[in-house]
Amino acid sequence: MGRSTFYLHLLSSILIFTLLLNAVHASKKCYIVYLGAHSHGPIPSSSDIETATRSHYDLLGSVLGSYEKANEAIIYSYNKHINGFAAALEEEEAADIAKNPNVVSVFLSKEHKLHTTRSWEFLGLQRNGVNSAWQKGRFGENTIIANIDTGVWPESMSFTDKGIGLVPTKWRGGNVCQINRLRGSKKVPCNRKLIGARFFNKAYEAFNGKLPSSQQTARDFVGHGTHTLSTAGGNFVLGVSVFGNGNGTAKGGSPRARVAAYKACWSLTDAASCFGADVLAAIDQAISDGVDVISVSVGGRSSLSAEELFTDEVSIGAFHALSKNILVVASAGNDGPTPGTVINVAPWLFTIAASTLDRDFSSTLTFGNNQQITGASLFVNTPPNRSFSLILSTDAKLPTATNRDAQLCKAGTLDPRKVNGKIVSCIRDGKIKSVSEGQEALSAGAMGMILGNQEQNGNTLLAEPHPDVTAPGVNILAAYSLFASASNLPSDTRRGFPFNVLQGTSMSCPHVAGIAGLLKTLHPDWSPAAIKSAIMTTASTRDNTNRPIRDAFDKKLANPFAYGSGHVRPNSAIDPGLIYDLSIVDYLNFLCASGYDQQLISALNFNRTFTCSGSHRITDLNYPSITLPNLGSNAITVTRTVTNVGPPSTYFAKAKLPGYSISVVPNSLSFTKIGEKKAFKVTVQATSVTKRGNYNFGELLWTNGKHIVRSPITVRRK
């Protein structure tokens, strides 16, 4: 009864919220004014924060004409580690502020999209193993993983604190837990596992109206945030299934990690509901709270040039996080397989694509001629041992529906008189949730639905409830919100599921965040770049049958544009042998090479001083991969430096790049101690057989007989 009352209360609040959506600013928009780094230290005092806030109001007031007008306009003051503010401004006002020499960039706050278990065994991790990354990384013990998403359902078994010790002293978030208790519950939502929860909605509310009091909480009403957070750092939970599928143990990549939820995504029906200004505020708070890893399964534009790195909220937040030794893991987006659709591509971000597992939630359909077809399904509600007529959706369409819309089973296209009691056959449309086709079939009276792939969907099988590296992102079973419907469709009344199966790079991103947590526990002093390098250089380009990874969409062999360095292998990443390390100075030099203004680059450094010295090239950024997109007739030489993180040994180089001449000097590197660094050069030159305009793919391997340190090479002859 209590739960039903809670749902009714929330549903009425949703109605009120919908009525408020028209309360928007007529001509003003949310702009972010980015000022670089603060001059105060890494742990600012309350006085430092107050001074920073006042400076933001003074700056805006000088343009708007008064402190009072600035007070009305400012939505957020980023006053901890990121220096800037978000404000409701006219276009002309934003242009005036951009003229100030102390301003790095002024840009419109974007709406970021959410990128919507057997996976850990698939990656080689065993709870009772001896030498897996789980044991070596102590299950991520005391590493703090932050998740910026739709919040958390704190009552989930994935977040109980049974057997977990005191909160680590490095946590600076205090006892802040902005989650309402369930009606009748005496349980405190946060604990020694879920050590913090905050929400950020000022930008969303500024342009969509005030949210009802019942939604002023970090509680997850959608399920996405609970799913991603439990995938990264959830406990071991026995006996988990969805609709009777996937019975087993659910767990996160770092099951002994501490987790914190930062809610910055708000719509209950729209994936594009994460306002950039809210996301940036969440990242700033997570840095201040002292987290080790930030997982962000959201993103904005795919076309982000080097000149636009500081007009993107996730890119800006990640830059300031790495300066505090915090790794930010972000999803690559779900807009593929078209080239150029990867998002979150700043070099200081760890960008993750999605791959499949060796586990399907399958159902078998038997036709009258005994032909059988196996597909993926979570929910089978047809009576056993009964036959049903099959009808094509185009044969069952209403007179007012087009053939194309009916083929895709779009809402309002099927005639109930033709569909009732039958199985209807539809085609999957990548632009809408495939569960919506099932909902249309159900509402028309169908007993079931067959959903076929189009050519661009390839042979992907998604079980649904009707590119630095790649990680599992299809058919991922993890914790869920009890309030959310199984499919997140407004018309879906099925609720109360403690676990659910989702897919997308949103699901692969927390897998890598969980792996990063293991590495951070074992190597607490490693930089974000070191952790990223360890995961990238040990990734595999072969699947679990030892065959080359295939592209599920194009039905051909995949390449680095699809999987980056390859599929993550945590058991190898925990002991990589060599790493390619980077510091904040290296990234500032990268910006020098990218043509950024000297004054702007200085503003990014906390003491606001930095000088671009010597000659720097983008290709010499000490990244664990090599990309040369505009190779001419002359040879190009790039420099890399590796750091030994294993025992004394000698590594030998092996490089291959079809259609090109490639050499490595020196071709052997000897190390006598941990932390020792050695530089080498790679020279690439086109040959007479090299075709212009095409990308070729190769690799560089450093091996000492035990470790294989692999870097992908991508070259295009202009």
UniProtKB/TrEMBL annotation:
Pfam families: fn3_6 (PF17766), Inhibitor_I9 (PF05922), Peptidase_S8 (PF00082)
Gene3D superfamilies per record: 2.60.40.2310, Peptidase S8 propeptide/proteinase inhibitor I9, Peptidase S8/S53 domain
UniProt domain Inhibitor I9: residue ranges: 31-115
Residues annotated as catalytic: D149 (charge relay system), H224 (charge relay system), S506 (charge relay system)
Domain of life, per lineage: Eukaryota
GO cellular component: extracellular region
Domain Peptidase S8/S53 residue range list: 140-562
Alphabetic keyword roster: Hydrolase, Protease, Secreted, Serine protease, Signal
One GO biological process term: response to symbiotic fungus
Location in or out of the cell: Secreted
CDD domains, per database record: PA_subtilisin_like, Peptidases_S8_3
Recorded family membership: Belongs to the peptidase S8 family.
Protein name (record): Subtilisin-like protease
Upper taxonomic lineage: Eukaryota, Viridiplantae, Streptophyta, Embryophyta, Tracheophyta
